Inverse folding.
């Protein structure tokens, strides 16, 4: 007997019928002899509906109250999932994030998990119950206020709980069959990945792959927890995110795991920065003070005559206005000439642990893009990742060109993707 | 400066516009220099919608999970009310029943408040915040599970919190102007009552008057807390439920306060019960074991020949099936002949502290009904109440006949009722 943590996303519990389907799957797992702890997201569009309601009463809802409001979503889904399980004759008990012992810091809207003390979950499991836990939410250590974990938070809840409970596996159920070598909507010949290392998955998530959220992968990596990403609409094997060998998975590890893309970033260029030591630091201090996470950074070669240089960086579009305001206020202090904002960019990233031992990867990638007539605006690299910024309208072409150049296209030219829903 | 607890029902916070209106009223109270603690119900039809959702996934949802589900309703309304207040420039903080320290027993669906420990509310008020508390919900003392207080539970939350906080007044906002001498939908000439004692209000609530719930009045009476029932749609003075004299309220106390009615009861008759000591007790033990509250009880005079008697009692229609099942199972043990179930009854009650010193009240009431040709099936009395059961289809006539007979009709023949919404 093992302990399985399962997480079902909003599309898997979108309505009463979906909830009953998910309940049957959970009960099946229980009947196979496993202890089961389930983490659920809010049903379908509930979160969006609640945000809309908040916007109707306040132009800028206080973050504490927005968290209080949004956590109603998972409360509803966890209770109905527990009811649907009970209707199948199994005992289920639902727990809020707070009740499940998900302790966070106090940053409303994007709290970080500090600790997980799942005493009540453990007790419920020991009594033979199926435990249903609200994803996405926790309680702040200092003020005991309700917090939310931000985008992808339910995945993080699931992995954090699985780690605290020392679960054997964390299954992340979604509406696709697993992780693919590229987004199948852009690359129809993308292939499902049988197994990917946590390091590669981390780079995929950081580069815009949407299936798993970055923090969730970080957590799984830290606790060495196998994560199985699979469809709630089929019984197919999904993608294993694990650093251990997986039975039945491909043994030979390819050089490249996949191609990720990201349309959510913008580029800010600080024009005419005095080319003196410390000026770049000043700029990034201003941005950091506004609590904005930068991604790529490029400093142009200084024009010797003027003694001025340009510094460009990318950041989430959602932080664009805040960053521009912060920099504008600091213009006199830093002494730059002007700011340029560009949200028509796209980022494509090639990820693969095999890059470490294959030095020709970047040359091959640049060649593929040159052949497709795509201009590269920024470059950044890690040990196992190579990211490029292109014009947004050429991003899809770039993803396809790279996917083909590295031999990732499936033999039959069309991926078998997305579960049994026809989506 | 005083401390005011305000409670707003579901119709007062039915949508975003209503929430904003309520927020303005709360902020006005705060600006008058009062500390304000607000208790809210779920918005409009939220609770019904959630029950409907539960029924879709389970024929008989576990009570614990139903409570978990339903409490999402107040969570939503308290958060948006807090947001709407913040949008008006005042600090507001919302608290769940559990956070507000509403400790209950473990009876899901109709939990009783055991204790209120409002430390966090007190702290919020001391910091100058307006505290918004979810009504209807608490947390069980033993298992720390979320509970709900049952019908009218938000009123009880408000009064219990007001008592624990030693508030100066508890204002119950509703969609009518206050308590009336009878339901104005039945008696158009009913008058608003300026002040009523808690004892009378207790009898009114127990007799079917819907504006305030029984347990809320019991709580207010126990803690000697003035309750002001008023409309959230107008600024008119409402009805004061208090045992203290109220400034501006009528000084001369009438004999009769009002006429209440109740359509929610059914009558069970146990036919052919052996007329031996202990048989009635056996019947009521069976009913009590099913956790059913009886109302009126009548035992017929025994027919000396047969040695058998009939026992009738009334109970909530919702408990009818349970009671019939329990009695059927005990037929052999008790030895009665048969059971009769009748849900076509109505109860009319006359309430007034003045009854104590005016012995002619019952005769006057019977005469009024006789004149209207209405048959009386059961009678029960308390010191300040006289209740009769009639056929359901004659109930409205009975209410009107009694209202007129005791001089409660307003001079102009039509009550000014219901606030500014045209409802």
């Amino acid at each position: 007997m093992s302990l399985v943590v399962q997480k079902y996303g909003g599309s898997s519990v979108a309505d009463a019928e979906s909830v009953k389907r998910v309940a049957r799957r959970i009960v099946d797992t229980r009947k196979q002899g496993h202890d089961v702890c389930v983490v659920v997201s809010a049903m379908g569009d509930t979160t969006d509906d609640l945000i809309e309601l908040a916007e109707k009463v306040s132009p800028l809802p206080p973050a504490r109250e927005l968290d209080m409001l949004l956590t109603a979503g998972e409360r509803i889904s966890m209770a109905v999932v527990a009811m649907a399980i009970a209707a199948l004759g199994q005992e289920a008990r639902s727990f809020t994030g707070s009740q499940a012992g998900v302790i966070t810091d106090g940053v409303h809207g994007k709290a970080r998990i500090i600790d997980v003390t799942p005493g009540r979950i453990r007790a419920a499991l020991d009594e033979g119950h199926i435990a249903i836990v609200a994803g996405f939410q926790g309680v702040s250590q200092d003020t005991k206020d309700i917090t939310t974990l931000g985008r992808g938070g339910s995945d993080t809840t699931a992995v954090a709980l699985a780690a605290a409970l020392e679960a054997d596996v964390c299954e992340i159920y979604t509406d696709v069959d697993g992780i693919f070598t590229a987004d199948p909507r852009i690359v129809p010949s993308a292939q499902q990945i049988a197994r990917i290392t946590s390091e590669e998955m981390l780079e995929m998530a950081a580069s815009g792959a949407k299936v798993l959220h970055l923090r969730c992968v970080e957590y799984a990596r830290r606790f060495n927890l196998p994560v199985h990403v699979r469809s709630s609409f089929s019984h197919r094997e999904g993608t294993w995110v694990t650093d251990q060998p997986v039975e039945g998975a491909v043994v030979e590890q390819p050089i490249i795991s996949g191609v990720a893309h990201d349309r959510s970033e913008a580029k800010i260029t600080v024009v005419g920065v005095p080319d003196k030591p410390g000026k770049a630091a000043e700029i990034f201090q201003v941005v950091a003070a506004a609590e904005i996470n930068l991604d790529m950074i490029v400093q142009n070669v200084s024009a010797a005559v003027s003694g001025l240089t340009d510094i460009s960086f990318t950041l989430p579009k959602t932080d664009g206005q805040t960053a521009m305001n912060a920099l504008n206020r600091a213009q006199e202090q830093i002494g730059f000439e002007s700011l340029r904002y560009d949200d028509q960019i796209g980022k494509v990233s090639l990820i693969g642990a095999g890059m470490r031992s294959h030095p020709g990867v970047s040359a091959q990638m640049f060649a593929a893009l040159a052949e497709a007539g795509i201009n590269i605006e920024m470059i950044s690299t890690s040990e196992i990742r190579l990211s490029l910024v292109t014009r947004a309208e050429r991003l899809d072409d770039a993803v396809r060109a790279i996917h083909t150049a590295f031999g990732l296209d499936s033999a039959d030219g069309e991926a078998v993707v997305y579960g049994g829903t026809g989506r």
Summary: The two ends of chain B are 35 Å apart (CA to CA). The domain at 3-250 of chain B is CATH 3.40.1160.10 (Carbamate kinase). Residues 63-87 of chain B form the longest helix (25 residues).
